């Protein structure tokens, strides 16, 4: 009887070598590992630029690094030496899939590695399509989002905390590997895929019509604070100082909001005086400030618990603003099957997310990140068929650690 493949590990049997730092490619490698691929992360002896990145434990261990490298194997190599570069080339050729954001190195360029493995799949993340450098924060500054983020009266740019382009780029990179593996299985050929971070941001800005709006209408988006463009959505504050985000996307949502706040007649009168039809989302958006003025009294007269209890009885979309510390102890984390208890060496035991996809109703659980170089000897023995003596000689020479 043939063993059935594990549906939660569709990439089982795919081997990947990763040379990376920071967010996009480490996220891609971790995602691929969570889907069943065997991912070997290769770092310089002592760690790459992100090995000590904050946040860190009291002992200086990077919580950040552990978070983005779960489920991988770690090999530490002297990447500057000829012997180290030769080892890495051999490991990439053996694996057949290479992902990296370290570009411009001739010794691990696609042209060089393809000669060793003609069906190689190589996915490279770069800063800009023109070859220039860039990270999420500089790319974001040049795309436009910081100048439409923040309070309406503010003139300075506001950077968002979430590295959105790194995250999106990491998912694109993982998708590129999965589709290239499928192509190789069918056509027998490898692929060289380049993903400039700036292009991910530009594509997103275009797909969401931020750029298209300027092209078609000749006008640029303006700041609107915590409102939602084209819809009715607004922040409200309770009598005890807690903030809520309230969103009415549909006519039903909006009707429930007026009934909840006791403003149905006042909203109708406002619509008559303005010549507005509040069953149309555009009119709700255009006159959002006047509507907010009517709704605000209901919120400021009630405590956060009273507001939450009342909102739960409606169709209105809402959530209370929370800190990360509050979310970490909330049932959305503590009672969520996405999270499982993880004993991460040197960091501690905590609830860690696995793959955020429920496959046949199950979330693949998180697997601890390795310590730097944990798998050096094992990988060299299994992948390059080196003897113990050969591995020991490389360690003694400082070629690997």
CATH-level-4 superfamily name of the largest domain? Crotonobetainyl-coa:carnitine coa-transferase, domain 1
CATH topology of the largest domain: Rossmann fold
Mean pLDDT: 96
Q: Shape, please?
A: elongated
**Overall SS class:** alpha/beta
| Rg over C-alpha atoms, rounded to the nearest angstrom | 26 Å
Most strands sheet: 6 strands, parallel
Number of strands: 11
Low-confidence stretches: none
What is the count of distinct domains? Answer: 2
Total count of helical runs of at least 4 residues = 17
- In percent terms, what proportion of residues is strand? 15-25%
| SSE order | EHEHEHEHEHHEHHEEHHHHHEHHEEHH
Pfam family, one: CoA_transf_3
Protein name: Dehydratase
GO molecular function: catalytic activity
InterPro entries: CoA-transferase_III (IPR050509), CoA-Trfase_fam_III (IPR003673), CoA-Trfase_III_dom3_sf (IPR044855), CoA-Trfase_III_dom_1_sf (IPR023606)
How would you explain this protein's 3D organization?
It comes from Mycolicibacterium sediminis. GO terms for molecular function: catalytic activity. Pfam families: CoA_transf_3 (PF02515). This is Dehydratase. There is one protein chain. The radius of gyration is 26 Å and the shape is elongated. The mean pLDDT is 96. The chain has a six-stranded parallel sheet with strand order 3-2-1-4-5-6, with helices on both faces. Strands 7-8-9 form a three-stranded antiparallel sheet. It has helices spanning 24-34, 63-68, 82-95, 110-116, 136-143, 164-187, 197-207, 210-217, 251-260, 264-274, 281-286, 288-300, 304-311, 324-328, 331-334, 376-384, 388-397; strands at 15-19, 38-44, 73-77, 97-100, 121-126, 191-196, 232-237, 243-248, 317-320, 339-344, 348-353. By secondary structure, it is α/β, with parallel strands linked by helices. Helix 1 crosses helix 6 (164-187) and helix 5 runs parallel beside helix 7. The longest helix is centred in the middle third of the chain and has 24 residues, at 164-187. The protein folds into two domains: 15-206 and 337-397, Crotonobetainyl-coa:carnitine coa-transferase, domain 1 (Rossmann fold, 3-Layer(aba) Sandwich); 232-320. The chain starts with 14 loop residues before the first strand and ends with a helix. It contains 17 helices and eleven strands. Strand 4, helix 4 (110-116) and strand 5 (121-126) form a beta-alpha-beta unit.
